[in-house]
Amino acid sequence: MSARSKSRKATAFLLILPLLAFIGAFFVWPLATILVEAVSDASVSNTLPRTAAVLREWDKQGLPPEAAGEALVTDIRNNSDAQALGDVVRRLNSAQPGFRTLMNKTVLAVTGQPEAIDLAAIDKRWSDVAFWRAIAVAAPPYTDRNLLAALDLGRDANGAITDLAGTESANRAILIRTFAIAGMVTGACVVLGLPFAMIAASSAGWRRQAMLGAVLLPLWTSLLVRTAAWYILLQDKGLINDLLRLAGLGPVPLIFNRLGVVIAMTHVLLPFMVLPIYSVLIAIPGSLMPAAASLGANPVRAFLHVQLPLALRGVASGALLVFMSAIGYYITPALIGGARDQMISSVIAFYAIGSANWGMAAALGIVLLVVTTLLYAVYNRLSASPVSGA
Fold first, then answer.
1. Is residue 152 part of a domain?
2. Domain check: are 14 and 123 in the same one?
3. What's the rounded mean pLDDT across residues 129-136?
4. Is the dihedral of CA 330, 334, 337, 343 positive or negative?
5. Would the pLDDT of 156 be above 80?
6. Same domain as 242, residue 302
7. Cis bond upstream, residue 65 (ω within 30)
8. Residue 164 forms part of a structural domain
9. What single-letter DSSP state applies at residue 64?
10. What is residue 387's predicted lDDT score, i.e. its pLDDT?
11. Are 26 and 67 in the same domain?
């Protein structure tokens, strides 16, 4: 390789270096942090290191060796961080009910006592293998517990993956609800967006510009402002219900329910359906429909057999864009929907802000990330493929 070629490559690399740094700082690093947070569970291994080391060799069948009890007493005596111990107690109590009272009683008994202590004498629950097994399972610094819990799964005493009890989690039901609402919004956008895009593509001059401007106008307005506007319009005494009353059809409950959420989200996401369909339709030769009519096809048949098949790639691309955007919505369902209309983003916000359970929030975020990535791969494939028969 010549010196000039090497110099050009070095110059090109320096030119894209700021872009690489931006992608690494604002995309790669946050995603890597979420991935690590979802599988990290180092509270037990950091606070009870000696106990974790002893239980690492235990087969989890009978009671652990006496060294485990001695290590636990030593770890409790050497611990000076009450918050860290509280995190351990919460983690273990979620796996084995009763651990909170057991650990609090044990801490009070062993603190300030230099001599050896029999844990079973403090509380007979230390003779129950289930409590020791809970410590052993939580001891590794990395775990799939949060990822499994995000899908309402867990591991039994033998390590096999099983369904969680119905009272322990509802993440799977909320995920299904999220996909159902996103599917309804996508369907509504297809029904409204396809004819709108067809009319816009067949128009010319100021009519086309006006129609495209009407579609793009919502994108220039804040999402919170648009949602607040729908909050006012959909109320029982809002403009829509006032018009329905005048027509003798109202009032109709449009807020704090599924219908209101679908209406508001459809308005927000409709441009992402119209624009891909329009971009495909505008590339279709205008002579195809007259040619079909000259061969004896009526307008409906010409549309179904000529124009619609050519427009399906735009419909599929728009549907994927709308669906990918809808599954991550938070503000609109939170303001317009009721308790049974909240989507998975609300659960992620609760874990991150309400309970500070960053592991579960990251795990649920990864579920959405995987689904979105798969859908984006399909969208990229559809966008790259040529229009059939054009």
1. no
2. no
3. 92
4. positive
5. no
6. yes
7. no
8. no
9. P
10. 45
11. no
Six token digits for residue 305: 């057999």
Q: How far is CA 146 from the centre of its chain?
A: 14
**Burial label, 100 (beta-carbon count in 10 A; 0-12, 13-18, 19+):** middle
Structure tokens at 132: 């020791």
What's the confidence (pLDDT) of residue 113? 72
* pLDDT per position as a tens digit, 318-363: 999 999 999 989 989 999 998 889 899 999 999 888 877 888 899 9
Helices first, then strands: H and E counts in the chain:
21, 2
Query: In residues, how long is the chain?
Result: 390
Exposed, middle or buried: residue 193 (CB in 10 Å: 0-12, 13-18, 19+)? buried
Task: Tell me the mean pLDDT in the region 189-217.
Answer: 90
d(CA 219, CA 222): 8
Within a domain: 154: no
pTM here is 0.81
Per-residue burial over 374-389, b = 16 or more CB atoms within 10 Å of its CB, e = otherwise: ebeeebeebeeeeeee
Domain identity same for 55 and 29? no
Q: Residue 8's domain spans which residues?
A: 1-39
Q: What is the mean pLDDT of residues 175-199?
A: 94
- Asked if the structure places residue 166 within a domain, the reply is no
Chain centre distance of CA 100:
31
Strand partners, 40: 142
Query: How many domains, the chain?
Result: 3
pLDDT band at 274 (very low <50, low <70, confident <90, very high): very high
pLDDT over threshold 50, residue 268: yes
Residues 230-256 have pLDDT tens digits of: 999 999 888 899 988 888 887 889 899
* Torsion sign (Cα): 284, 289, 292, 294: negative
pLDDT confidence of residue 21 = 93
Per the CB < 8 A criterion, the answer to whether 246 and 229 are in contact is: no
Q: Residue 265: how many CB atoms within 10 A of its CB?
A: 28
- Tokens at residue 158, please? 């033998």
What 318-321 contacts at long range (C-beta under 8 Å, 24+ apart), as own/partner pairs, is 318/189, 318/190, 318/193, 318/272, 318/273, 318/274, 318/275, 318/276, 318/277, 319/186, 319/189, 319/190, 319/273, 320/375, 320/376, 320/378, 320/379, 320/382, 321/272, 321/273, 321/276, 321/379
